[in-house]
Design a protein that fits this description.
The structure is a single chain. The protein is an all-alpha fold. The protein has one domain. The protein is built from three helices and no strands. The longest helix is centred in the first third of the chain and has 28 residues. The model has no long low-confidence stretch (mean pLDDT about 95).
């Protein structure tokens, strides 16, 4: 399913917004779930662990957005 340039720009704009928001939410969630919340080890743990769920969540949201836009 090729995207038109206008749709691609729209998608990239929203990808940044949704991706950053998802990453920050997962970062805070993993920091809060660490045995020592607020420590530097919890920050480094959360920074690496939040990447995959944020990417999956962003891809899912963008997929739904593209589907609804094309409909």
């Amino acid at each position: 399913m090729p995207l038109e340039p206008e749709d691609r720009r729209w998608l990239m704009d929203w990808a940044r917004k949704v991706g950053i928001t998802a990453y920050l939410l997962f970062l805070l969630a993993f920091m809060a779930g660490h045995p020592a919340p607020g420590s530097l080890s919890s920050l480094s743990y959360a920074a690496t662990m939040a990447i995959v769920p944020a990417a999956i969540g962003t891809a899912a949201v963008l997929g739904v957005m593209v589907y609804l836009r094309k409909r």
